[in-house]
Amino acid sequence: MKEKDYKPKQLLTKREKEVFELLVQDKTTKDIAQELFISEKTVRNHISNAMQKLGVKGRSQAVIELLRMGELKL
To answer: Span of the secretion signal (predicted)?
Structure first.
């Protein structure tokens, strides 16, 4: 495998990233659920899973970490 062909594995799933992209747009859990056609509980699960992967204790810490890592853009 050539070095340029290597793609690092994404930390977040596509859906987790979508949820956080909406969070940084100041959307509520309810807004995100409606926009993505999922339940509010599922939104909270995606946020919780991402926070566990990142090793942080809150949504805001998760957003800061994702911005620092280049996973999210403002």
So the answer is: none
